[in-house]
Structures are given as structure tokens and as C-alpha cells.
Amino acid sequence: MAVEGAPPFFAESIVFLAATVVAVPIAKRLGLGSVVGYLAAGAMIGPHGLRLLGSGEDVLHVAELGVVLLLFVIGLELDPQKLWRMKRDIFGLGTAQVLLTGITLYAVGRYAGYPYSTALVAGFGLALSSTAFALQILQERGQLSSAYGQRAFGILLLQDIAIVPLLAMVAILSAGEGPATAADIVREVVIVLAAVAAVILTGRYLVSPIFHLLAASRAREVMLSAALLVALGSAGIVHAVGLSMALGAFLAGVLLAESSFRHTLEADIEPFRSLLMGLFFVAVGMSLDVSLVGANWEIVAAGVAIVMMVKGIFLWSLSRATGSPNSDALRIAVTLPQGGEFAFVLFTAAVSNRLLDYQTANLLTAIVILSMLLTPLACLGLDRLAARVKARGVENPSIETFEEATPAVLVIGFGRFGMVVAQILTSEGLEITAIDNRPDRIAYARKQGYKVYYGDATRADVLAAAGAGKAALVAMCIENDKVMAKAIDLVREGFPDTLIFCRATDRAHVLDLTRRGVDFQIRETFESSVVFGRAALEALGTPLDRIDQIEEDVRYRDDERLAMQLADGIYAGADRLHRVTPRKAAEDKQDLPAE
Predict the structure, then answer these.
(1) Does residue 245 sit in the same domain as residue 113?
(2) Distance CA 287, CA 345 (A)
(3) Domain span at residue 352?
(4) Fewer beta carbons under 10 A from the terminal one: N or C of the chain?
(5) Is residue 387 part of a domain?
(6) Same domain membership, residue 437 and residue 359
(7) Could you tell me if 212 and 273 lie in one domain?
(8) What's the structural domain count of the chain?
(9) In a domain, 402, yes or no
(10) What angle do CA 196, 201, 203 make, to 5 degrees?
(11) Beta strands of 325-484 (E only): which ranges?
């Protein structure tokens, strides 16, 4: 499909956008999630549907960058210590699931009469779940950070690693391919380790200084280019030695999780990730050969049922055996029973090496796609079952999970004022996240032991990435009144239930904040001046009870003046400034009852 005189892919882009605009809202309205909408859109416009577009393979090569960016963003949310704590789920639970599922499906393939090499490739290819699909479902439901979401992610991460030995298995099984020598194996291992080391060293020692220089330039588009360069560059380095691009991007993300630019990186990459992930699922939908499925529907239906049942049983039983409650084990089982995108890579390699014929590969691909399509239905069924159980009063406390037991606070602006606020909050054991847009302040605060991130408070995506939606309170400690006003509006619009506490610079700023309806505001100069005045009176010999009376009266008159200024303008209430505080001690003494 082409339009004369139009730029390349112009008409195709219109078709893609129109199909997704129609299909995705319908799928979400039906409770099936956006992924099913993308798959349906691809099947509708593809070569096996309305034939508005050709093969989805060319699109898939570009759209796979969405999976790369997804894993980079996920890596940003995990620091190395947290990843290390997940090692049992990754290497224990994940490895057991791949091996047991792969061996079982291999046995089914052999029972169905397929050669052992075909059954081996098919069995272990179908044992892999879809990282892109499952993580999209978890993110849409807001459950990626839950206990079962983290276990599911550990399994998916191991499966991404497993594609490497599986591709090596294809090479070994292929006809005419001699066994690899020890020297070949050692050389490959050294190359892989060197690539991983290059990503680690670059991420740890080179990227943060570069971002500090770019942040000082205040050029957002350059920061965006650098963010994409880090994600795609690390993916390219690792891919060059035969590892998964997504794995390389994930590794880079983990290394930058402790960086002060974490939230800005996440906010900058998110639009590209979302768009490319949608394109990825559309391309997968385009690959579904409906006529082939119709001609072999018994084989495909049996394959989908066997794959989802076998994977679901192993996922549930292994999760239960390793400590998950029944509700979490069920959620893992219904989130990961589908085939995955890496199965396409494995099946393509097997066809090239003549381990699979074209028709078998297409049938396996159809099984993977249909299992993806049925996964949201399984999740929806479990949700309805849980709701029914809850309605009957048989509540399982494990179904609801909470990421944090204490309130979180987002501190915006980390100068002297913000640092003292953070010190008071952390003294109570509260968790804080702080953002600032000055690299020198961030560097100083980090030397003092605070985790402060680079971020622009006038961007809604940065506020969301920094956790404004999860925060119980947002502390605005910014010096710039205009920046604070825009940030207040963004928080009020996007997160209306969040408390907003503000640092005010002067009386005019207090009046503006009051009109904006913030929950608390304070003039730093007023409070420090009151303390200063108290100290001066004490040095001049004024009794402490008299000083207390004066402070109380000054605060009362200041509140009166602010109310008058709100009604009549900034110059109202000047008479409240020039009054001597009445002495109440003698009057109070006279009012005492006689003994």
C-alpha cells in the first residue's frame, strides 16, 4: 500500500494508527486489555485479514525495539541489591519451570510422532513465556511491584537468558554441523563476558558523568537522545555477541537504577516504549495465518490447550513449592501460560537449519499467538472468581498486596530548605524520594547520603515516574514561584488525593498558594524572623512568658492581615503591623479567684 509522492511508510503508518485507535479501546472496554486490541488490529489489517498491509516480519524487526526499551525501563526500577535478592526466583524457580515444561512438551511432541530434534525445539520454544505480553499485563494492572509480580518477572528474566543456550542447541542439532570444540566454547564465553563487562563498566563509570554535563545544558532533546543511546547502545553491544538485546538493555537499566537521572530517563523513554510495544503486538497479530489455523484447527486447538495447561500446572505447583500463597501461585499461572516472542526467534533459526519445516513452524507460531490471545481471558476469569469469593465473605488476605507499609513523600527541590525537611521526615523512618533540576545540588546531596534524582517538576511524566501517584504527600521546596505553581497544578490534576505542602517565599506567594488550595504553606523568612526576634528579645532581658505573649500576638495579627489581603489586595491590613502587644499578666492575676 503506497501513496504517490508521500514519504516512505506514510500510508502504512495511517493504517497502523487507525486500526489501533479502533481496536484497542474496544478491547479495553470489554475488559480484555490493550494487548488483545493490538493483536486483533494486526490480524485485521494483515496479509491474512483485510490485506491492507503485507507481511508483519519487517515491522516486527523494528517493533522489537519496544521490548528492548521495556526491559530497560524495568531495569531502572531494580537496583543491583534488589536483583540479587531475586536470585532464587530467577535461577531456581525460572530454571525449574523452563526445564520441566520443556521436557514435558518434548515428550508430548515425541508421542505425537515428531522427530526428536523437532520435538526438542518445539517443546523448549513453547516453554518460554512472553516477556513483553506478561509485563504489559502486570503494568496495566499495577501489579508488577507486588509479590507475585516480582516472582513472575524473575521467571521471565531467566527465560530471556535461556534463549542463548536454546539457540546453541539448534546449531548443535542442525544437520551437517559438527560439534563445537573446547576452544570454540571458551572463545564464545570470553566474548560474552567481555561484552557484559563493557556494558557494566560503561554504565557505572561513564554514563552518569555524561548525563551531568548534559543536564547542565538544560537541553531536553539532548537528554532524550542520550537516554535512547544508552538503552539501544547497550542492547547492541550484547546482541553483537549473540545474547538477547532485551537482556543487554535490562542490564544497563539495572546499572542506572541508582543514578540520579533514573526518573528522567524513565519519563523520556516511556512514550517510545509504549508506541513500539503497541507496534510489536500489531506485528505479531499480522503474523497469524487464519487460513492455516482453520485448516488445522484440531492440531492448533489441542496445542494451545496442552501448552497453557502444562505451563499453568508447573507454574502453580513450583510457585507453591517455593513459598507462594495459593492466590499468588494462581496469578502467576494465569499470567505466564502463553508462548513468547523468543519462540519466534527459535523457530526461525530452526527453519533455517532445517530442523522444522515451514508448515510446522507456522502451526507452532499460531499456537503461540492464540495462547497470547487467551491469556487476558484467563486473567479476567481469575479476577471474577476472586470477586465472587470475596462477595461470599470468604476473603483471602493474600489476594491484596501492598508495596509499602509506611507513607511515602516526594520532596521537590533539594536545597537547604528541602534537605532539612528530608532530615525530619527520615528521622521518623518515612521513605522519601527527592528530585531537583540542578546537578550540583544533586551531587552535594548524594555526598551527604541522600538519594536525589534529576527531574523537572513542570513535567507530568517526570512527577509520575518519581512516584507522585504513590506519595501520600508532596513537599514543594522550590525557590521559583512560577515553577512551583505549574507543579502544583500538575499534581492537583494528575493526583488529586495527594497532600501538597509548600515553601512560600513571601506574602504574595502565600496569597497565591492559598488561592490554589494547597494543604499547607509556610513562609521560611517569617518563621526564621520570628525565631530571630525571640532571641533578640531574650538577649535584651525580656521575660520568657512575655516573649511567648508577643509571638502569639504577632502570629495572630499576621493571620488577620493575610485574610484582609486575600479580600482587599496586597496593601490591606497595614495597621496590623504597628501595635504593641498588651500585657496580660496583671489582668490574668486580677481574674484569679480569691483564696
Answers:
(1) yes
(2) 13
(3) 60-375
(4) C
(5) no
(6) no
(7) yes
(8) 2
(9) no
(10) 95
(11) 408-412, 431-436, 452-454, 473-476
**How many CB atoms neighbour CB 175 within 10 A?**
8
My answer on whether 328 and 425 are in the same domain is: no
Same domain, 258 and 306: yes
Q: What is the CATH number of the domain that holds 284?
A: 1.20.1530.20
- Rounded to the nearest 10°, the torsion over CA 531, 534, 540, 541 is -140
Here the cell at position 278 is 503497541
- Residue 485 Cα distances to 433, 438, 480, angstroms: 20, 19, 9
Give the three cell numbers for residue 394.
Answer: 470468604
Q: Is residue 520 part of a domain?
A: yes
Instruction: Give phi and psi for 451, each to the nearest 5.
Output: -90, 100
The whole-angstrom separation of Cα 260 and Cα 349 is 41
- Residue 165, classified by CB atoms within 10 Å of its CB into exposed (0-12), middle (13-18) or buried (19+), is exposed
Q: What is the pLDDT of residues 401-428, one digit of tens each?
A: 333 334 688 999 988 888 888 888 888 7
443 with 353, same domain? no
Cell numbers at 67, concatenated: 521490548
493-549, pLDDT tens digit by residue? 888 888 999 998 888 888 888 888 899 988 878 888 888 888 888 888 888 988 888
Q: Among candidates 144, 39, 141, which has minimal Cα distance to 382?
A: 141
- For residue 399, being part of any structural domain is answered with no
Same domain membership, residue 424 and residue 362: no
Rounded Cα–Cα distance for residues 454 and 260 (Å):
5
Q: Residue 586 class from Cβ within 10 Å (0-12 exposed, 13-18 middle, 19+ buried)?
A: exposed
Q: What is the pTM of this model?
A: 0.62
Long-range contacts of 328-333 (CB under 8 A, 24+ apart): 328/147, 328/148, 328/151, 328/398, 329/148, 330/382, 331/143, 331/148, 331/152, 331/382, 332/148, 332/151, 332/152, 332/155
Residue 337 DSSP code = -
Is residue 125 over pLDDT 80? yes
